[in-house]
Design a protein that fits this description.
The chain has 701 residues and is α/β, with parallel strands linked by helices. Helix content is 28%, strand content 19%. α6 (171-182) runs parallel beside α7. The structure holds alpha-methylisocitric acid and iron/sulfur cluster.
């Protein structure tokens, strides 16, 4: 059997373990990426590890998230990062230079290399043939110190692309189709690899839209081969010397994918699996309605795709644009790390050229990088957008992370972004649809959902965009590591508070269920961003917002309940259903609950990055062995686990949890590798790294 590209890169970077799907392996990380909202903590943790200089090939710190600058906090973080990065030997991309993923793709991504980033959309660089993975800031800090990154050797989901996209149908529609098949659940431990003749027609930024939003599938990463298109892109960036062809073997076989799915709740996705996958088998449903669904690979005919959207609430609520035709739209935003490349924004500018934004619509554009911004400014496209009435936002994450442009309650906002979790826009009752730039542009001029292909029927040809042979390359906002590092004084403002240390898990757990939440609770639900984002470098302050969306009027907040339990000497517990911790890599979703005294999370299933963050901050992840036991617990119940620490240390597979309030008992598994057990028993990853010196092993120093 030939090898997948994923396994070729993994083999070249393997430093520990066997590459057998499901087993834990350690890999060498060539490049790291941090952004300000997670990077301040990552650099503080890096400093507290006592490693004077970064030891991986390339570390880049970006500032793109916290840009609103209400109060001194954001600027304080920027100045800290701008001084600490070159001091420890990292590059630093200054505010204004663009969104980390877009800039990394333009200036640093290299085929065949590994990249670890403290942001869940790090897989964007997979569009350039890199194995690019998102992780918590502490894992990235360890990789900056030369330490390996541990992951489950993946099952590789093969996605064969055939044909060619029709005019007005976009790369975003490819990933929407994949999301309609795989959904955001049940893909932990997999990597998606694209191959086939259809790949050839997609430019690198198009591929990156697909790998970027692959993060929403909950997979470890997504990857495309590196080919003539990659060479063309790197050449346009003046980096052709970094080109290296990378592809799976011709006869590569992809893994058979097996998912447990609910025949009723997951009916739409099962239907899509039948329609778009090869070798499909659907088993009998058990008494709870779950069946085993398996398939060999996904096959998508690009020529048959049509414009799609993700309806409010979740990136996998996929519908056709046609089915929403005529629905009024009041806000349109084009930008974010998913869809703000030169081509994306040129298409939008050309659709709007000579027109005015529909009076229903407030329309904003946020170019993904200073390079794109500059090119639009110089070729006149920016002038077209301004003339059409677009609000031009800075080159940053902005509205994607609830930093402004919150829509009115209940009205439709159409965005070219990757996440539409309820409330993420900053409006609790928001109605955010995700769409391609083409669909956004059509809505901006018509004031309603309109299949962009209908614009052709109205006499508008699909805009032809040609790339200049050479993009504008200006790295003057990237500060390089310097020989003079000793002379740099790191800026440390009063709003930067060193994160609190974790403790060893309790010998016996005893405490209340502080909150019981349902399916697909995201890290945005646990730790909101928006106006709270500025407290990222101040855990005691930020912790006040834990589970903010779930707080009830005139009742004590989650933070108040948790602190009261902690002061009474009890251990806080969180109970959740499926896919707990979806979405962002923000380790604050573990760090802040830890600060509030949470010692365990019990869920039906958990997402990869969040589970790793819980372990890193010594919160014990537990899974219901019988999912039905979830129904038998209520908020406020007192739980107890005798011998929790011993069970973690001695490798026990399960623990018995006593519900002292109801007088019942249920079983939970400990979904932990031997290494994770050691981390927990040491009181978290920072303590474990200090004890073992694990950060020096790969670099051999
Ligand atoms: C996001 O898109 O949710 C973020 C903000 O980029 C996060 C990182 C963070 O919370 O700082 C992510 O995707 O990891
Ligand atoms: Fe920024 Fe949004 Fe991309 Fe996250 S998803 S990195 S907030 S643009």
């Amino acid at each position: 059997m030939g090898k997948s590209l994923t396994y070729k890169i993994l083999e070249q970077h393997l430093v520990e373990g066997n590459l057998v799907p499901g087993e834990e392996v350690g890999i060498r990380i060539d490049q790291t990426l941090t952004q300000d909202a997670t990077g301040t903590t990552a650099f503080l943790l890096f400093e507290s590890m006592g490693v004077p200089k970064v030891r991986n090939e390339l570390a880049v710190s970006y500032v793109d998230h916290n840009m609103s600058m209400f109060g001194p906090e954001n600027h304080t973080d920027h100045l800290y990062l701008q001084t600490v990065a070159p001091k420890v030997g990292a590059y630093h991309s200054r505010p204004g230079n663009g969104i980390c993923h877009q800039v990394h793709l333009e200036r640093f991504a290299a085929p065949g290399k590994t990249l670890l980033g403290s942001d869940s959309h790090t897989p964007t660089a997979g569009g350039a043939g890199m194995l690019a993975i998102g992780a918590g800031g502490l894992d990235v800090a360890v990789a900056m110190g030369g330490g390996p990154f541990y992951l489950t050797a993946p099952k590789v989901i093969g996605v064969e692309l055939k044909g060619k996209l029709q005019p007005w149908v976009a790369p975003k529609d490819i990933i929407f189709r994949v999301l309609s098949i795989l959904t955001t659940k049940g893909n932990v431990g997999c990597i998606v690899e694209y191959f086939g003749q259809g790949v050839k027609s997609l430019a690198v930024p198009d591929r990156s839209t697909v790998t970027n939003m692959g993060a929403e599938l909950g997979v470890t990463t997504s990857i495309f081969p590196a080919d003539a298109m990659t060479k063309k892109y790197l050449k346009a960036q003046g980096r052709q010397q970094q080109y290296k062809p990378m592809a799976a073997d011709r006869n590569a076989e992809y893994h058979r994918i097996i998912k447990k799915m609910h025949v009723q709740k997951d009916a739409a996705s099962i239907e899509n699996i039948r329609k778009y996958c090869v070798g499909v088998e659907v088993g009998e449903a058990d008494k709870d309605g779950y069946a085993t669904v398996s398939f060999d690979r996904i096959v998508i005919d690009l020529g048959a795709l049509e414009p799609l959207v993700a309806a409010p609430g979740s990136p996998d609520n996929i519908e056709t644009v046609r089915q929403n035709s005529g629905k009024k739209v009041h806000q349109v935003i084009v930008g974010s790390c998913t869809n703000s490349s030169f081509h994306d924004l040129m298409v939008v500018a050309k659709v709007l050229e000579g027109k005015t934004v529909h009076p229903n619509v407030e329309f904003s554009v946020a170019p993904g990088s200073r390079q794109v911004f500059n090119m639009l400014a110089r070729n006149g496209a920016l002038a077209s957008l301004i003339a059409a009435g677009a609000k031009i936002l800075e080159s940053a994450c902005g509205p994607c992370i609830g930093q402004g442009q919150s829509p009115a309650e209940g009205v439709v906002s159409v965005r070219s972004f990757n996440r539409n979790f309820t409330g993420r826009s900053g409006t609790l009752d928001d109605k955010v649809y995700l769409a391609s730039p083409e669909t956004c542009a059509a809505a901006a001029i018509t004031g309603e959902f309109c299949d962009p292909r209908d614009l052709s029927a109205k006499g508008m040809a699909y805009p032809k965009v040609t790339w200049p042979a050479r993009f504008i390359v200006d790295d003057s906002l990237i500060i390089k590591p310097t020989e003079e590092a000793a002379r740099i004084e790191v800026f440390r403002g009063p709003t930067i508070v060193t994160p609190p240390a974790a403790d060893v898990p309790p010998t016996d757990l005893a405490g209340p269920v502080l909150i019981k939440v349902g399916d697909k609770v995201t890290t945005d639900d646990i730790m909101p961003a928006g106006s709270f984002l500025k407290h990222r470098s101040n855990v005691p302050e930020y912790a006040k917002a834990v589970f903010f969306r779930f707080n009830r009027k005139d009742q004590p907040t989650f933070a108040q309940r948790a602190l009261a339990a902690k002061q009474a000497g009890k251990h806080g517990v969180v109970v959740a259903a499926e896919s707990y911790g979806q979405g962002s890599s923000r380790e604050h979703a573990a760090l802040c609950p830890m600060y509030l005294g949470v010692k365990a999370v019990i869920a039906k299933s958990m997402e990869r990055i969040h589970k790793a963050n819980l372990v890193n901050f010594a919160i014990v992840p537990l899974l219901f062995v019988h999912p039905a036991d979830y129904e038998k617990i209520e908020e406020g119940d007192e739980l107890a686990v005798l011998g929790l620490l011993k069970a973690v240390e001695s490798g026990e597979a399960n623990v018995q949890v006593q519900n002292c309030t109801r007088g019942t008992m249920f079983t939970c598994s400990l979904p932990l590798t031997t290494r994770e057990r050691k981390i927990l028993a040491a009181g978290g990853k920072l303590n474990h790294t200090r004890l073992t010196g694990a950060n020096g092993r790969v670099a051999g120093m």
